[in-house]
Specification:
Elements: H1 9-21, H2 24-27, H3 36-51, H4 56-60, H5 62-67, E1 73-74, E2 77-82, E3 88-91, H6 113-122, E4 126-131, E5 135-144, E6 151-156, H7 185-204, H8 211-219, E7 233-236, E8 241-244, H9 267-278, E9 280-287, E10 300-310, E11 317-325
Antiparallel strand pairs: 1-2, 2-3, 2-6, 4-5, 5-6, 7-8, 7-11, 9-10, 10-11
Length: 343
């Protein structure tokens, strides 16, 4: 985006008045960015609001907030939260970019733009001029998460086509039970508990350095962690979706905890709440099986299993889980939670 004062004189005049009054930092929105001053005010204002978030459930909503047209996104003006290793932790305009490391991406003149943005942020907040078809300006600043105490880099004004950058997938050890081997209650439990260990370690890794590659590994169809209807999901304690292996567009959105199956079982609430409170939760319920025609209204019997784990540097919990449809399966009789505490 070329920041052009002449393109929007009315907005620019308003922005200058706001700057003079000291109000721009808190109030400048994406659609008001018309020059360097308003760009900086936009990013710094968002930084202040994001740093003030201390609840993991509110933090989980950031992915959806940054992607929704509104105060933090207007056309080609949006925000990106970068890990300090160069991966977009949350990208306001390109979900696919969150699967990549952009540290080596160059502009038309060979400038490594993300590398420069990280350096600009480390200087206390600064502008980076780059060329992507036209001259553009971005602003980057570091911020500290009020949830985990970890540092991130917040960027506005950066937009490049990064479709050529390969997706980075972690080379994980083969789990004792892979997704394709989940055929009953016991294999489901083993699969989810191994996934919980891997994901929790990624969350605890320095600067989330391992998280992007592991999330990508969990998405690979036919891989160790995803096979047909067997896939993983991660939510905050109140049900905000942090990760969804098959439907990433749901990330940052709320799970309907009031939803019930044909027997009145509030399956999402029971799985997520049970795992958050007790550490683990096993549940049988009815849910639509996409491979079966005619069960849309009643659903098909399914077993779900979920495990709670701690968020980095916090006593707040997140939950990871998966499930298996019972059609054609054996050894999946309903089991009470009490008999599973040994797992």
């Amino acid at each position: 985006m070329r920041l052009n004062l002449k393109a929007a004189p009315a907005l620019a005049a308003l922005a200058l008045v706001m700057l003079a009054s000291g109000a721009a930092k808190a109030q400048t929105t994406a659609d008001q960015v018309v020059d360097n001053e308003t760009l900086q005010a936009f990013v710094e204002g968002a930084k202040a609001e994001i740093e003030a978030i201390t609840d993991v459930n509110e933090g989980a909503k950031l992915r959806d907030r940054l992607r929704t047209e509104g105060p933090w996104k207007s056309g080609s003006m949006f925000l990106i939260i970068f890990l300090k290793s160069g991966e977009p932790f949350i990208h306001g305009n390109d979900r696919e970019a969150e699967s990549k490391n952009l540290i080596g991406v160059e502009d038309d003149n060979g400038l490594k733009v993300v590398e420069e943005l990280l350096a600009a942020a480390a200087r206390g907040g600064d502008f980076v001029e780059y060329h992507d078809g036209e001259a553009k300006t971005a602003y980057a600043v570091e911020y500290t998460s009020g949830i985990t105490g970890r540092q991130f880099v917040l960027v506005g004004g950066y937009s490049q086509d990064v479709s050529h950058v390969p997706i980075q997938t972690a080379d994980l050890p083969k789990p004792a039970v892979t997704a394709s081997q989940v055929v009953d209650r016991e294999t489901l439990i083993t699969f989810v508990e191994e996934a919980a260990k891997v994901y929790a370690e990624a969350v605890q890794s320095e600067g989330y350095s391992a998280l992007t590659g592991i999330r990508n590994a969990f998405r690979v169809e036919g891989g160790d962690w995803k096979s047909g209807s067997i896939y993983l999901w991660v939510v905050s304690g109140s049900g905000i979706i942090l990760f969804h292996a098959t439907e990433p567009f749901r990330e940052g959105k709320e799970t309907d905890l009031t939803r019930t199956d044909i027997n009145g079982v509030r399956f999402a609430e029971e799985l997520i709440g049970g795992a958050r409170r007790e550490g683990r939760k096993f549940l049988q319920y009815y849910y639509d099986d996409p491979t079966i025609e005619g069960d849309e209204d009643t659903g098909s019997p399914k077993l779900g299993y979920a495990v709670g784990f701690s968020v980095a540097n916090s006593d707040q919990k997140a939950v990871i889980g998966s499930g298996i449809y019972l059609a054609g399966q054996t050894n999946v009789a309903p089991t009470s939670w009490g008999s599973l505490k040994g797992h």
